[in-house]
Amino acid sequence: MEGEPLSALCTPALVVDVDKVKRNAKRMMERCHQLGVQLRPHMKTHKTLECADIMTGGSRRCIVVSTLAEATFYADHGFDDILYAYSLPFDKVERCAALSERLDLFQVLLDHPDALERLRKRPLKGGRRWHVWLKLDCGNGRAGVLHSEPEALQLAQAVAEADGVELTGVYAHCGNTYNCKGVEQIQAVAQETTSFTLQFMEKLKAVGISCKSSIGSTPSCSHPVSDMGKLSEVHPGNYVFYDVQQSMIGSCGLEDVAVRVLTRVVGHCPHRNQLLVDCGWTGISLDGAGKLPTGYAMIEGHPDLKLLSMTQEHGRVEPISGPLDYSKYPIGSLLTLIPYHSCAAAAMHPVYHVHSEGRLMGKWTPTRGW
Predict the structure, then answer these.
(1) Does the first or last residue of the chain, that is N or C, have fewer Cβ atoms within 10 Å of its Cβ?
(2) Which residues form the D-serine dehydratase-like domain (predicted)?
(3) What is the pLDDT of residue 249?
């Protein structure tokens, strides 16, 4: 299908504009270079080799993953310096050990003393040490030990002092930037997370501990504050695709969004003033419910249409107001959906169709599972 137009694809299909991907990746690299901070891109959005090569500039080094399936996939294809940025799951310690013993640098994350104890009870072979990042909660309210609690410093000290373990760094995710609207709000959260992290690094320094520091989210790294240059690393991921959600937050413009889901009209329902399309929730996910006036996605070129609801394999589309002109949407015609959340939409697809200026160039196949 190489060289053919997007209309040659069967639907639903996830399509990736490789020129936008490269531009988004290049801008993030340049931003980090100007800040003087190491970019450790997150693979969770796309989970493909091709996009990972673009994000790492071909180095195949210094990446973040969210699953061990991703870690193994990248390790199997020559990637190294991999950070598994998920609080250590006790059922997966042996798999983490295998990667730690195999790669030059495989790193794990923890936020509880019991996790450290698990690592101590599984010493690595060949005199290797576990490389551990401490997960801090700097206001995001998900995983991590709260930055201001004495337990955070105590856990960092315990990691630093444990046999067979090295405190490699301190890691914080400023996911609370996803509640922001506009650059000013994004930068306020980025500043707060950076300040809390740097304050914690000073506490470590006062007790003789030196290690790396890293924060990240796509909004904060799309509009970084200068103090982020005092960190060792940043770890955004979604920026390579972006999505409607990021455009609403203020991370990007809609013109930066590199992914679309193509769908076809499969039914006319004049008694309901609706169209049926062949993209259900298995083609784009249910993420974004109630967030957009246009429903679960934006329908490109048709701001008057709304993706009202979806079942597994069908989507219901209706006008925001007035009657539908069915002559504009014949059975079999294509509609293009801009996803609310590209990570979720991509996760629905076993293959991504890559194009440049609307001409197909090939396929990217993501890894799946945990």
Answers:
(1) C
(2) 258-356
(3) 98
Handedness of CA 115, 121, 122, 126 (dihedral sign): positive
CATH number of 36-238: 3.20.20.10
Confidence (pTM): 0.97
Closest to 106 measured CA to CA, from 63, 155, 59: 63
The three-state DSSP-derived secondary structure of 272-293 is CCEEEECCCHHHHCCCCCCCEC
The rounded distance, in Å, linking the Cα atoms of 176 and 160 is: 29
Tokens 């993209």, residue?
A: 279
- Report domain extents, the chain: 36-238, 254-364
| CA gap 298, 108 in Å, rounded | 38
Q: What pLDDT digit, counting tens, does each position of 249-277 carry?
A: 999 999 999 999 999 999 999 999 999 99
CA 353, distance to chain mean position in Å, is 19
Residue ranges of the chain with pLDDT lower than 50?
Answer: none
* Strand stretches in 165-226, DSSP E: 165-173, 212-216
